[in-house]
Amino acid sequence: MTVNEQPIDPQNSWIAIDGAKITGVVTNAVLKSGFTKYNVTIRAINKHNLHSDTWVEITILGTAPQLFYQYEMTVTEDSSLTQSSQSPGLARQIDMVKRLKQMFTYDIVNVVEYQQMINNKQFNLIWSVCPLPNKCTTEGLSESEKKLIQAGQPTQELITLLQTEYQLNSIQSKDSEACSGPLNPPVPTQDPLEVEVPLCGGFRYQFPSTLFTDEDGDARKLHLWLLTPLGARAGAFHDWLLYIEKDQTIEGVPTYVDGALYNKEKTELKLVATDSTGLTATISFYLTFKMVPQPKYRYQISLSPFNPLKIDDYHTFLNKIGSFGMPELVRKYIGYWSYRTIANGNMIIEFFSCNVTYNPCNLYRLQEIKSEFSDSNNFPTTKFRDHMEPDFNVGLVAGDYEEPCGQSNPPVVIVTPPKQIIYCCGIFQYTIPERTFFDSEQGYTRHLDLSLTSSTFTMTSFTEFSSQSQLLMLIPSASVISDHQSQTFVYQLKATDNTQLFQVTSLTIDILGPYSILHECSIKISMTRLSIASSRTNLQTIQYFIQRLASYFQVTEEEIGVVSYSAQSSSTSVVFIWSYCSSNYRSQAYQTDSSTLKVDYYNLQIKILRLLFDGKRKVQTSFLSVFSSQFSIQNVETQFTGRCRDLPPTPTPGHHEIVIYLSYGGYVTHDYLDNYFYDYEDGDAFSLSLTFLNSQNHTVLIDHWINIDYSLHTIYAIVDDVIRASSSSIFIYYLRATDSASQTAFITITVRRYTTTFVWAPFNITYSLQYTGQSSMVYVRQSHYLINSIIQYFSSITTYVFVLVRGFYQIPGYPQYKTIVFSVARETCSSKVLEKVKTVYSSANGQLDSNLKSSVSQMFTLHRVTYESTCSSNPDPPSPVDPLPDLTVSYCMVFNYNLPSTLFHDTIDGETNHLGLALLDQHGMYVSSSSWFQLNAATMQLYAVAIQSYAQQQSTYTYQIQATNSRGLSNKVSFKARMDGKPFTADCYLSMSFTYKFMTSNVVDIDVLQRFISMVQEYYGRSTSTGKEVKIKMFTRVSNSFNVSWSHCAFQYSSLQLSQQGLTENDRNRITQIFSKYLVTSSTGQISNQIISDFKTFMSSHFTIQSLTASYDCIEEPPVPSIDKLRVFPKFCQLFNESIPITAFHDRRDGNTRNLALTLLDEKGRPVSSDSWLQMDAYQYVYGVVTEDVKKAAPLAGYQYYVQARDSSGRTANISYIVKVASSIKSFDVYFRLGFQSQYGESVPTATLLNTLVQKLSKYIDPDDT
């Protein structure tokens, strides 16, 4: 025997098999285990040891009771029960229960706990009398206990009951804690409770948890009972009502009559709550049903149930009918009329729809529903029968109706036409569905007279309805939609039968889309109607226009959007305004008419405007006959506003992407055509501003490996070492077109590089050249020209030359110097190309081969040709021959120095001009692009521009020239370059910020500065022949922007001191003349910050000026005293030492007093003599010692001195310095006469000696004297 597939424990099991019986004791522990069903497997074994199993399901009813009183007994068994097949413990429990039950009149003895003692004959038993709820009282305890215990000992009755089998050792009572606390009944929070529930669809209602409060908790902690006033269970009194105790829920499936009677009688029920102590509370409970009008049509279904139906089955029936797919009979709309049992246990259930109008009666729909259930003979349809099985076996389904469903009725609406959602373009046609109306005599919609009206707008403006064909034709008009101020249009659709009875339903049309775009992008056609077209209605005319326009432009009718149409009945003039309606406008994103929605500029221009107008925006001749012989076009004009005021350019079909293929060492060109872009206002690609961008949408620099020559409309691309080293094989660029309104469009340029490699020659060749073409030419076109020139030159000595470009760079040198480094494919050390390069210099005069120079002369001047090769093993580097002198660079000029050809010598390559050259700084690093000193390797020329701000930091710099031979071996020579500060000038500076239009990754700052100086001098020299030289004060670069401060060397002096004195107001007019060549000058001679347009235009070929200012700071003014005089009061027997205040003077250029040179002057304005008692030191302190002689000689008004301040330009200013000595002098009888010799070793003022002597003596006499 097993329980729940687990073998039983004979010592502890609560259940066992005894012969052919299953016996057991349900203890509290079993009840609290949580299991209510137990599967007991029983095995029968025959004498052959063969067996068979069966099982019994045991259900335990109820829950563990509240134990108010318990008794604990210790018992010793006198006779053996082991003969039973049960376990001894279970047999004892069963026997004890049987004996104890004899003590009480009710069969409610409960074993709480059984425990086997060490002695198998002795056991402990805890049990209780299951008391009624009102037994939790002292009387309840006495009633039970007096039969068991008296004076603490077992009663004789109990001993006698047990003595035949057992010896009772002890018994004691155990009180429950539940009886020790306060005993209060539950408290209702609402009485009575009234609840309204639906009649249709059945109901389910759970009593609120807050309905009662009790010490046990809310209502969920209590036992709730639903009873009739007489105490019967409510479910037994009302067969349609069920109370579920565990959920505290009522549910029901009343019939229509049940609901009506219940509401009429207002039947009272009682809800009783019982807590854990057995105390109760009762409230009145009333149900009310939401009634519906009495149904006039009911469905009758006969069933052959397998078992009598319960309330759950009626719920299942509702679910089945509700899920069959009838919208009028979803569960919540199904009401029971009756359910009754007939012969042979069969049932008839009668139900109805709570969602059908019975007056007037829609008999059509009711019978249509019935036809879904059964055929004309009332036999169920296969679909319905299968749907109901296996829960219900359906026999017949009939329909029963009463008046007014049998009377003559007006047409009824079967299905209201669904809302039509259309877009504000094209032509909309809609035929009223056949099953919209039904008339019991005439039939469906086609047999009724239909009419369409609207009370909110004039239909004839864009709607026509044919009663005969029941066809609605609607052409959305942007003007009508705008005037209506809503995208929703509601029509009244009226159906009338032969008896003039009618029914009305609505037809709603939502016209979606951005009709404001159609307004803003409209095209107006003015025309004259010819006689052949006069018979058409307005809508037929508009329809004709749409069809003809769609045909001409090869678009769909939905792509033609009507804005407005006007035609005078008394005139032949017709105006039709329309627009292109993109398929985008019919998408989800464009359902609202938001002003932020984007116009489909591409299709508007490509599909419409490009075919409507020619390049001069004249109407195409072919369009004038678009309306054949029915309308004569007089004028076509665009009415573009808002988002269509300025149309952006757009790529034309087939040109959204250009794909260029490049080999590993290749070079390619691609010509783009005028028709790659189209712009309605400006024209095709060549009329637009084109810009070449990289993948980050930044303009590519002029020296990029792929670029565009806009003058030739050609894309050039050349692979160099940087691109070969790239891990990418696909490069993305964009060609941007910008029209006159700054609107843009893009074409993607995809460059695909093959990864095929070549065998490189063991040498590299370098051309150093000066570019002589236009500055704006992109480098890749220059290098493309060089490649062709190289191939052409070397083709004369070899059959095939494949040039592999290493790099094409801008090198330092003004105006434009370049270098191209290249090799060739499939060549060796015996290459004819290499041998030719070795001989390009004449052995007679050292000049380059004239044919080689002329091969590139259309764009370049070739200065030098060098090479590097691994074909030679000579290990010696070039040797320095002649040292370089120290070089001096002056202002107001561009410095140049040509390196001598004898600077280096190489045993194989020869002199300097055959070597690779580079300029290094004192640390052996290549000079930076911002260096003021550079080397033009092509011309072997050092060049520089002295910059004042550099000279102030460091005037002398150390550089090195590095020479590299063809084996890659190098040597160096050093030299110094110094800015000497000449000529000495006084300068009023102009300051300008600008960008350089031909910025490259290799450009050096000094080349940009040279270009600037050259253009400024050229511009300035157009109006004067003197003073055009330029002195640079400051030149800096931030990213691609430059800042420069310069002056014209117009004020030159013979010495630095004179130049530092600066200029005066007498020079202002001359300075203004210089400034006025760059900045606008007012009639009063005031210089503004407005740049003269002529200067801006002149500089624009190379620079974009951002700002330009001028300063008159060069005009010096003397220091300005802040006070007229200073008074001081030195005292006798005290040292005098006071500083001149820092605020005493101020100078516009030099600043406060501490930045000025101060001198103490006597009353005649001369510097005080060295023997004066008062002096001034270098720290601007006035000091002295007041002696008797000084006091006696003091004027009454005090000593008169002057303090003079001198600025850096030598200009001075004075303030009065009055020294008033104290009037009283102490009388001294004893004097000391001291002779001494100064140890200063030089002539010092007397005041200095006295000041030092007094300090020394004071310290000697009194060390504490300060």
UniProtKB/TrEMBL annotation:
InterPro entries per record: Cadg, Cadherin-like_sf, Ig-like_fold, SEA_DG_dom
A cellular component annotation (GO) from this entry: sarcolemma
PROSITE patterns reported in the protein's UniProt record: SEA_DG
Molecular function terms, GO-annotated: calcium ion binding; laminin binding
Gene Ontology terms describing biological process: axon guidance; morphogenesis of an epithelium; nerve development
Main location: membrane
Peptidase S72 domain ranges (all copies): 514-643
Protein's name in the database: Peptidase S72 domain-containing protein
Organism whose genome encodes this protein: Clytia hemisphaerica
Protein's cellular compartments: Cell membrane, Sarcolemma
Domain of life: Eukaryota
Classification via Gene3D superfamilies: Immunoglobulins
